[in-house]
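Final report, Chapter 2: Outcomes

The project's central promise was a pipeline that accepts a single protein chain and returns its three-dimensional structure in a standardized token representation, suitable for archiving and comparison. That pipeline is now operational. To close this chapter, we reproduce one record exactly as it appears in the project archive, with the input sequence first and the structure output second.
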Amino acid sequence: MSRVMTGRTALVTGVTSGIGRATAELLLAAGLRVAGCARDAERLQQVAAELPGLVPLPADLRDAGQRRALVDEAVARFGQLDVLVNNAGVGYVGAVVDMDAGDVERIFATNSTAVVDLTRLVLPAMMERGDGDVVMLSSSAIWATLPPLTVYAASKRALDGFTEGLRREVKDAGVRVHSVNPGFVATEFLSRAEHEHPDEGEAPTSPGTSPQSVAEVVREELESGSGRTVAVPRVMELGRLLSVPGVSQVFDLVVRLGSDPMARLGRIMADRHSVTDRTG
């Protein structure tokens, strides 16, 4: 049986494009009141104008003070937060050896630290009410870490560890912890690898699942109240088998055989300013 979503409140991060925008649109259509966060205030206002009902709350999630202010403002607007969708994230396509310290800090600050801290900020009120949902937009890369996505996958593995532990920590407090783990998604990913702000609505340059398909899974998980980890598409969950002894050794061999072309790809992408994000 689907849970009633009408009237619930949600904060969605990284809402100006891709999965975040599609998720906000679906949640609004389902009757939720939705606040959307992004770093780029101008783009955020444009999206809010196109999604009637969206409350735009600009914030840089890498800043602890802005994270606190974001949650406080969302609660002030809505009275409470029932749903947090941790969508904002940073990707990096390139070899570890070609990264600098700023790249590493930016990836983990957005994909790991910001998510843990935002979740920490909304949890007390959810636990006091005995009801709430936290959704992590993770990645299927956690089950098959491949260069040139090594550091990106590591940041998502950190998020996966947090999700697993938090789910056990709050399971008796009425808070459901969901993780939606897409494979490749057709977004602005490659455009952002070349220039920092592609035009809103620009044709996607990455192959893969549509952002709308991922957003549908987010909505379905919230309606089900199951609090689980789901891959999109579901076949990506076969990646879990790569940790099985024997299978993992074969996978390592395959990766080694393909290491040269993957390394070349990583260096090409690093030369093209390959830090990418969906923080808006």
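Archive annotation: The longest helix spans residues 101-129.
This record, like all others produced under the grant, will remain available to the consortium after the project formally closes.
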